[in-house]
Amino acid sequence: MAGQVRKKVDTKQIDKIIKSYDKSEESLLAILQDFQRSFQYVPEEGMKRLSKYMGVPESKIYAMGTFYKALSLTPRGRHTCKVCMGTACHLKGAGQILETIERELKVKRNSTTEDQRFTVESVNCVGACAMAPVVVVDEDYSGHVRQSKVMDILDKYK
Amino acid sequence: MEKITITIDGKTVEAIKDQPVLMAAKENGIDIPALCHHPELENSGGSCRVCLVEAIQGGRSRIVTSCNYPVRKGLEIRTDTEQVRNIRKGVIELLLCRVPDSEVIQNLAAKYGIKEPRFFTDEGESDRNKCIACSLCTQVCEDVVGVSAISMQNRGRDKAPGTPYHKDSSVCIGCGACAYACPTNAISMKDEKGVRKIWGKKFKMVACSVCGKPYIPEAQVNWIVRTTGKERSFFDKCPDHR
């Protein structure tokens, strides 16, 4: 991603994750999920080493990595900030809220801040329309969010 | 191989049990359009939906993909009724929206009388202008060639074949089987001055010792020698001069 400083991945950590599983194709997804948890993304080096260890073509592992929404090929932030863009939230001004976040955090929607603090996403409905407009940070739901107050919510997450 | 008789378009024909209806029809001179099925690949087919036919069995009628529907006793197939033609036309119209630049789909559409698709088209999305995401190329690469250099990536409307990270593949042998199998000619492969370019990677080609024409990538020769034990000298001459 443009302007993003990518840390060198820890190959020892990669090997440790891989070795903790059985040498079986069934472990592939679990290992990719562990990569995601440890590094906030699935590193290229991880796929390469996994492919070698399992004897599974790299292209197949890459296909898995791009298929699942829970896996990301670029580093995600420490926190995920979802702004609901469902019909109710949209009418209640979710667009301006998202724009405020984009401006204040200097980030485009569906990408990650340079300091890796937040990944900002627009989502289609979080099923809490009565609370519109809704912003979800990690697992915490905030309802009736106002443009002037949204940054106070995000400030709690470091 | 058990031979049984089935009915296709009112004609009683002989077919092999469990063989795909599409093949049984073809062997009896009945043409069903199909894109994503390849007779050499057992698991191919079922994704382009162009080969839809009406299958009647035990008094029940269903619309099925003939490329992977098995021939069974008492089966009756209709390939050219108004209903079948209409459904197939709809499928082709949607394919045309997806890959408006593909000549194969354009010709098929013209044959079914589609002038302009009624829906939004993906025109100008050059990345996958002609690809209908049938995954025949990745199946050939895995099952026939045996290298798995490419795979279907992403999901939904972004699904497309490619090498990992869109980088030069470390395992691709440049054989071009994927381009050959592609039903819509969506994979670009160019041979120029003894160099083949495919999936963004360049392959040096071996020239025929008789006519001097470069005809096979070196990497492919190495692969065949390594996996089959064939003599390297076999590849000195091209198939025309062997």
Which helices and strands, and how do they pair?
The complex is a heterodimer of chains A (158) and B (242).
Chain A: H1 11-19, H2 28-39, H3 44-54, H4 58-67, E1 79-84, H5 87-91, H6 94-105, E2 111-112, E3 118-123, E4 135-137, E5 140-142, H7 150-155
Parallel strand pairs in A: 1-3
Antiparallel strand pairs in A: 1-4, 2-3, 4-5
Chain B: E1 3-8, E2 11-16, H1 21-27, E3 52-57, E4 60-65, E5 76-78, H2 82-98, H3 103-111, H4 136-145, E6 151-153, E7 160-162, H5 177-181, E8 189-192, E9 195-198, E10 201-207, E11 214-217, H6 218-228
Helix pairs in contact in B: 2-3
Cα-atom Rg of chain B, whole angstroms?
21 Å
Q: How is the main sheet of chain B built?
A: 5 strands, mixed
Tell me the total number of β-strands of chain B: 11
Record field, number of beta strands of chain A: 5
Q: Number of helical segments of chain B?
A: 6
Distance between the termini of chain B: 36 Å
- Approximately how much helix is present in the residues of chain B? 10-25%
Which class of secondary structure composition applies to the elements of chain B? Answer: alpha+beta
Taking the alpha carbons of the first and last residues of chain A, their distance comes to 22 Å
Strand content of chain A: 5-15%
Spatial order of strands in the largest sheet of chain B:
2-1-5-3-4
- In the predicted model, the low-confidence regions of chain A spanning at least 5 consecutive residues are 1-5
Helix fraction of chain A by DSSP (H/I, runs of at least 4) = 40-55%
Features:
heterodimer; A: alpha+beta; Glutaredoxin; 41% helix; B: Ubiquitin-like (UB roll); 6 helices
Provide a descriptive summary of the structure in words.
The complex is a heterodimer of chains A (158) and B (242). Chain A has 158 residues and is α+β, with helices and mostly antiparallel strands. Chain A folds into 2 domains: 11-67, no CATH class; 79-155, Glutaredoxin (3-Layer(aba) Sandwich). Chain A has 7 helices and 5 strands; from the N terminus they run H-H-H-H-E-H-H-E-E-E-E-H. A 5-stranded mixed sheet of chain A has the order 2-3-1-4-5. In chain A, strand 2 (111-112) and strand 3 form a beta hairpin. In chain A, helix 1 (11-19) packs antiparallel against helix 2 (28-39), helix 1 (11-19) packs parallel to helix 3 and helix 2 packs antiparallel against helix 3 (44-54). Chain A starts with 10 loop residues before the first helix and ends with a helix. The relative contact order of chain A is 0.13. Residues 1-5 of chain A have low confidence and may be disordered. Chain B has 242 residues and is of the alpha+beta class. Chain B folds into 3 domains: 3-80, Ubiquitin-like (UB roll) (Roll), CATH 3.10.20; 84-127, no CATH class; 135-241, no CATH class. Helix content of chain B is 24%, strand content 21%. In chain B, helix 2 packs antiparallel against helix 3 (103-111). The model of chain B has no long low-confidence stretch (mean pLDDT 93). The interface between A and B is medium-sized, with 11 and 17 residues.
